[in-house]
Structure formats: C-alpha cells, structure tokens
Amino acid sequence: MHFSPHQKAWLAHSLTLAGKADESMTKTIASAKVDMNPHQVEAALFALASPLSSGVILADEVGLGKTIEASLVLAQKWAERRRKLLLIVPATLRKQWSQELEEKFSLPSVIIEAKSFNQASKEGHANPFDIEVCSGRPAICICSYEFAARKEVELARVPWDLVVLDEAHKLRNIYKKDGAKTARKLDAALTGRKKVLLSATPLQNSILELYGLVSVIDPHYFGDLGSFKARYAKQNLEEIELALLRHRLSKVCNRTLRRQVQEEGGISFTRRYSMTEDFRPTANEEKLYQEVSEYLQRDDLLSIKSGARHLVTLVIRKILASSTHAVQGTLETMIERLERKQPLVEALQDYDNLEDYQDEESIEDDDLIDPEALQAEIDLLKDFKKLAGSITGNAKAEALIRVLQRAFSKTQELGGARKAVIFTESVRTQTWLAELLAANGYANEIVMLNGSNNDATSKTIYKDWLTEHEGSSRISGSKTADMKAALVDKFRNDATLMICTEAGAEGINLQFCSLLVNYDLPWNPQRVEQRIGRVHRYGQKHDVVVVNFINKGNRADERVFELLSQKFQLFEGVFGASDEVLGSIESGVDIERRIHDIYQHCRSDEQIEAEFNQLQEQLKDQLEVKVNDTRKSLLEHFDADVVSRLNTRRGKVVSQLSHFQQQLLQLARMAFADNGQDYFEHESGFSWQGQKYNLNWQEAESQDQQFFRLSDGLGAHLVTELKIATLPTVHLSFVYSPQQGQWVDVKNLIGQTGSLRVVKVSVGSSEELREKLLLTAITDSGDSIHPETVERLLQMPIVTNDMPPAVVNPDVFESDEANQLQAFMDIVERDNELYYGEEVEKLERWAEDKRIALDIRVKQLDQEIKQARKASRQLATLQEKMAAKRELKRLERERDTVMLNYHEEKKKIEQEEDRLLEQIEARLAMDTQLETIFEARWTVLKPEFTA
C-alpha cells in the first residue's frame, strides 16, 4: 500500500489540533505512563473547563491521586505551549513531584531552593524563577511554600500560566488578621495568576476556611470577609442560602470520595496491619544515648552555634536513635570538622534528608571562638566516639532479625510476596544493616536505595540494567531516575530486602511488595504516611504489614510511637484511614519540631509524660476525626450521581483513547508504507529500524519496547516532519480498500472524480486556541461530499507513483467551506457564551454579596439603636442616662454615615462589575485565520486495481 504526502499531512495536522480540554485531553492521556481513572480525568477537565476561570480547588479524598489530576492539567498546559508553570509544595514532596512528572508525563522540572537560587543569581540571572532564561529550555518550576514566600518579589515578576499549590489547606487561614504570613505573601505575589489548589480538607473547622481558599483563587468570587460572614456564616443558615452557596462552590471546588470511586470500580482498597517488636538497649547503648543526649541539651555549647542549633541537634538525635555504628561515624566527622574549625552542618550528610531541612533553616554557623573550651568539647566527643566503638551488639538490629521471619509469615498468609522494604534515616545504618542481614541468611538478597547510591553493588546493578535495556524507552537519560529504576527492578525480580533511606525512596512505587519495616521511625506523621504510601497505594493487590520497633528503655520513643499509632492512626485500617487527620494538621514539620523540643528539654520520664500529654491536648481538635456536616452538605455530591458520571466518563475515555490510538497507528502505517514491508505485527504496535514500538505503555515497559506517543520520540518526529512539507496540487488516485468493514459512502464514489481541499481554521483568543480541519470535496458532477466521507477517503491507499500535477478551481469549494466554517464558528461562539455567562453570574453574585452586606449592616445598626433606646428608659441615674444618650448618638451617626454612603458604595460596586466585565469581553475577542494544507484532484478506483 502507498500513501501520498498529502494524506500524511492531513493526518498529522488532524492529530495535533488545538481544542477545548475535553477534545484535546485524549492526546495527553495517550502520552502518559499512568493507568488513568475516570475521576482523575473528571477532575482535570473540571480544572480546565473554562478558559476564563481563575482557578479551582481539587478536593478528592487522600489516596485518589490528586497528584495525577494536577499533573494532567500541567501536561495539558505544556501541550498548549504554555510553559510558565509553577508548583508550590511542602519541602518534603519536591523530589516526589519532580519524579512523578518526569516518569509518568515526561515533563521536565527544576527544583528551586536556596542553593540553586543563589547559584543562578551568582551566574548573573536576574530572576532564577525564569527557568527558560536561566537554563535555555523551559521546565516546570518546583519550590517549597517557605522558599516561595521568602522570594515573593522574584516570584511576582514571572507571568505564570498556571500555579499548582499542593497541600493547599496551608493557606486556608488567610482570612485571619493574625498569622497566615506565608499565605498572605504568596497571595500577593501570585495575584491574577490562574491557580489549582490541591487539598483533601479545604474545610476543616470553619466555613470561613473555604472562603479563605476561594479568595486566593479569585478575590471577586465572594464579597469581602464581612459580607461572606454576614451572609453565610450564620448559626442557622436558611435552606435557600445553603443551596445557593453549594451551587456557587460547585463551580470552583471538585470533590470525589473513596467510596464513590470504589463503587464505580476504579480502585479497590486494601488494609494495613501493624506489627510491633519490643527491644531494650544494652547498658552501654543506654549510657551512650544518655551522655550524648545530655550533651545536646547543654545551653553553653560552642561547637553548635545558635543559627544551626535546631538542625544539628535534630539530626544528631535521629542518628543517635538509628544505630551506634551511625553515631560513631557521625562523631568522627564532627570531630574532624571541629578540629579544622569548620561548621558542623556538612558533618551531617549521613542523614539522607538533610536538604529538606536546610532549605527552611538558617544554617550559617558563627565563627568558632574560645579554642580551649572548644577543645574540651572535642575531647568530650572523642569520649563518646570511644564508647560507641566499644559497643558490639545492637538490641534493635537483633529485634529486626527476630521479627523479619514472623512478618514474612504474616505477609504470605495475606497473599503477599516474600519481600520487605526497610526504612532507615541514616546512610551508615543502611550499609551496616546490609552487612548484618547478609551475615544472617540474606546474602545476595539485598538492594540498597539512597540519595546517591555510590556503593559498588548499586553501580554494578545500574551498569547491568543499562546493558539489558540499551536502546529501549526504559532508559530516561537521567542517572538518578535510571539508578532508581534499576534498583527497583532488581528488588522486584531478584531480591528479598530493599533497605531504603527517605531521599532514596522519593518518587518510587513498590506495590509488588506488601511488607514495610520502619527501622527508624520519623517524628513527622506526613513523612510516615509517605513511606507507607510507597507500598500501600493504588495498585496494591494485598493487605500491607507495617512493622515498628518500640524502645522499652526510652519513654520518649514509646510516646512518639503511641502518638503516631493511636492518635494519627497510621498503621492500622483501610487505605487512607488517616487522611482526615493528615489533611487537617497544618504541618508535620511543626509536630516534628515540637517533639524535638521535648527531647531537648525533658530530663525525666515525668517531664516527658507531661509534655507529650500537653502536645496531644493541643492537637486534640485536629486529631479527633469528626463527621463534618458542613463539609458534607457543601462539598459532597450524591453517590449515585457521581458513580453514574464516572461510569459515563470511563466509557468516553476508553472510546476516545481507542480512536486516537488507531489514528496514531494509521499515521505510522502511512509513514512507513512505501518501504515495501509490513512492519505492523499486532494491533497496538509495530517494528521500525530494528526497534519495536507499542502504543500501550504497560506492554512497552514489560516487553522492553519503545512507547509510541505524540509527545516525544518517533511519534513527535513523524508529526513534525509530515506537517512542514509544502504540498503541490496533484491528482490522487485512491484505491477503495477499507481497513475496518465496508465504508459504503466511499464505495459509492468508485469511478468518480472531483476536487478536494483541506483547510485548517484557527480561532484564537488570549485565553484559548481552537482549531479544526475543513474537509471539502466536490464531484465533477457538482455533488458535495460529507466531511466524514472525505476523512475516510483520505485513509484509502493510492496508486503507486500516480500523482500527476493538477489544476483545481478554488471556487467550487466556496459554499461548502463557508458552511463548515460557520458551523465551527457557531460552536466556538456558543462555548464562549457559556464561559461569559458563568463569569457574569459569578460577578453578579459577588456584587449581590457586597450589596447584601450593606443592607445587613444598616439593619444591624437600626436594631442596635432600637435596643439602646429601650435600655436607656430603664436606667436609674442621670449619669447612666447621659452615657446611654451619648452611645445612642454615636450609633445614629454611624447609621446615618452608612446610609449616606450606601448609594455611593452601590455605585462603586456597579462600576467595578462593569470594569471586570469589560476585561472578560476583551479576553474573549477572537482572531480567525485560515491556512490551506493542500488542494487536489481525485479519483476512486475499484479494489481489484493494481499498479
């Protein structure tokens, strides 16, 4: 079979047309390496529904994949060539986001933090947030909340196309006058930018929190705080007002529940089981802990200066709880640096998550002083090191060896594989554990994963993996990502144990493993949940077992476990049992800081008990999971409606994806048809130049094939190449040879000739570009051919080398083309009317909020005056009556001032409404362009025709 460059150009243009989100989302889904669920597509389409929208809140319950939803939105913007994209996330999630964007959506990203920001500034870049200027290529910018707030001036100077804020409940108290400083800075810096806020708990304690989040998106969505309070924050809100508020919120907030998704059949949730192993440290281990702890509690330390005090003591305490081997190595490095009078921060690299704290901490050490006192501290550290070196046994390590077999039995009883991921916070402990476990029956069954993986074993695994997958899409080109992929593959296929640090495990999915061991337990509940989320996530087929160790010689350690287990409910129950709590706490880092303070200041078990009791009391409101009726009535929709909608969406996605992939495969067929071979071995893939390609990403990965998609690689190359050709007017002789069944409409054209033209129409506003191909064909007898038939005709093969030059009379297309163009313009106009109508309604409601607030204030003052008059009549003394009269006069003057200003204020509201509507109209102004792709004469020949 043979196809002309004209046919290839038509299909290449057809596959890359810009359009509404629900039209072009299919391309994004087809290019993503993720098994998309209908609720995720629904959420992304909700965020992209109106080009005039200032943003939305995506509020699905935890565990339903808000990261995927937001990534879909970012990928869609990227495909539209809107590349000024910003992600603001908790510091601990920066790497995870970067990894997800790269692995699942092939979206490049750059993490901006203090070190890289300062480096870019030194290199002469005026604004390190302007990634494309700094690096010469666009990328999604990722930074933490605290860093973004500190750099508000630079942040404000970038014209962001979209800003995504993860864990956005951090901003919900912005309406309060006190506190919320970070939220206020970000709000000011990002005014006018389109935003997507992600939060499982946008409303936790007060309806005003919802007001706060919506005001971050659009200050003209509700009236000011006073008018919102007056209208909606009443004790007993009238049903009609509640219904109106629900309707207004439904336009800006999308929420799906786990039970709805489970009912639709998208996700099946497994359970998690807790297993604990007690241990008691040896006398020397306890002595080392006690002496180092007392050292860290001293106020007069010279070696650890105030700027770095919190960070250094926190990390040393983590290492102290990990293993004596880690303590010994850290003490040795500390001693070396102090003897060279260098800051201690760099001595803490054993703690693999150090940079998450460095970005938010002031870590500059002052110049070290008083050499004699400093030497005394160095000598003390040498004593600690000597004691650590004398300890040969390790009680917690022995407990690990004991519990592993019991945990494996439980996991296998639940149907899981004999695999365990073991988490430690220390790289030294990780290496030591690998040696210990290898000597206790696990030799050649261990993989280590950390932030660098510079050990010889990891390097060998990586090298072998590169050789095995040479030339395949498995190799991304990023050494960090490929090293992780190699080690995860090794764990999946050959190993029993993977020993991980936090930094190493960011962004990896280990659903094939269902046993997790917290060798070192973090104090931050969100970090614990992230760990468990590596195995207990969407795609996990078995119930998960989580093992923790309880140090019976340390009451503070016991209380930390009780807090995480009993109060935060992290280790037991159905997937996501803790999301109400985790979503409600402002910051896991703050809780970690509070726990650290207890370790630093308490010198007895009694003090520890009292301090932990106080901490739990302060967290009480957040930790008590309640059924929030307000949230249910405002944000949650009837299950039956949601399930029905998700079922419909699944059907549409499957259908549209199938059609798109068939077209993409047809493009490859057309492109390679002239090579005289059949490269198309099966319905979802083909071979080309010794490489196998597959449109199904799971099959491509499992069979070591290239993922064939539009966004990059061969697919992107073909489309670019086929679209740029200049096409002469020729005669195309089609051979009727349908690929799928009988196309009677094309069959009826056998023996006929005519003229054909393909024109691309682009209708653009500042907010949205819409494109369509106008397919016009006329027979020589003057009959018009339906565009759908023309589309089918263009998929027919042609006679080899039979494309003689031709002349076409352009006048024959005029009427049909004009009709198609008008039909398309009518659709665009109708959509724009809907967008405009939604904005008009929003502004009318905003103006109504403001006017109602004025009315309510006048009525309140009238009521206060009436009550004051009544009260003054009952007063006994002249003094009291005179004071009451003065207060009455004050209220009357205030009411008169409000009434005098009433009409002036209403006029201002109307003027602001008119100004905003003019802005909207300007944003919808359309510019129409027509581009002729090609013109041709055509003939349809019988199927038995051969060249």
From TrEMBL:
Residues 47-220 form the Helicase ATP-binding domain. Residues 851-922 form a coiled coil. GO terms for molecular function: ATP binding; helicase activity; hydrolase activity. Residues 403-582 form the Helicase C-terminal domain. CDD domains: DEXDc_RapA (cd18011), SF2_C_SNF (cd18793). It comes from the Bacteria. The keyword Lyase does not apply. The keyword Protease does not apply. PROSITE patterns: HELICASE_ATP_BIND_1, HELICASE_CTER. Keywords: ATP-binding, Coiled coil, Helicase, Hydrolase, Nucleotide-binding. PANTHER family: SNF2/RAD54 HELICASE FAMILY. This is DEAD/DEAH box helicase. The lineage of its organism: Bacteria, Pseudomonadati, Pseudomonadota, Gammaproteobacteria, Alteromonadales.
